[in-house]
Write a structure and sequence with these properties.
It contains 8 helices and no strands. With 194 residues, the chain is mainly α. It has one domain.
């Protein structure tokens, strides 16, 4: 039985997430579990980095309707991620299990980042002195990401559901398996015409 590698491998890869276009530099050999954890940690660090930069531009924390709008949007996002979290993983085979895990995680990841994008635009749209509009999004996005993140407890819960359904798949083994090679298309033989 595979052992959970923890979050340390994800922390090693997170520096790539902070470079624009760096997500594409995550090695293709990383497992689904390490990749999901790298994206989760990278997102949170990125949100705080952007918040620090915005704090340099503007430091007023006065509550406004922009911050309230972000909070309402954040509540909706958390409800959507909570519903997404209950999505059943496909248990037909290991490949479909890995794909359904990745789909579920990245849909939640996108929803969490949508709140932060909304908060970022609210910061600029609301006018001067609206740092709270951005900061209001961080707790909602972080909570939503925590709901969907592949923590040890969440993986154990998914394994319990698979066992209760009679599946012989082991979630941790499937997610820690080396990724399948990407299908390669043959390159056309192109000659240079002078």
């Amino acid at each position: 039985m595979a052992e959970d590698p923890g979050w340390k491998p994800a922390l090693k890869g997170v520096r790539r997430m902070l470079i624009p276009g760096g997500a594409a530099m995550i090695p293709k050999r990383e497992t689904a579990l390490t990749t999901a954890r790298t994206f989760a940690v990278g997102a949170v660090i990125g949100w705080f980095a952007v918040g620090g930069f915005l704090a340099l531009l503007d430091q007023d924390l006065t509550p406004t309707t922009a911050a309230e709008g972000v909070a309402i949007f954040g509540v909706v996002e958390v409800v959507l991620i909570a519903a997404l979290r209950r999505r059943e993983l496909s248990v037909e085979n290991a490949r479909k299990l890995r794909h359904s895990f990745a789909q579920t995680f990245f849909l939640g990841y996108v929803l969490a980042n949508t709140v932060m994008i909304f908060a970022f635009f609210a910061f600029f749209r609301a006018g001067r002195g609206q740092l709270l509009a951005y900061l209001m999004g961080i707790p909602f996005a972080a909570f939503g990401l925590w709901l969907i993140a592949p923590t040890k407890d969440r993986l154990a819960g998914q394994q319990a559901r698979l066992d209760a359904g009679g599946s012989d798949l082991v979630v941790l083994e499937v997610l820690e398996a080396p990724p399948e090679p990407m299908p390669q298309k043959p390159r056309p033989n192109r000659r240079r015409r002078w």
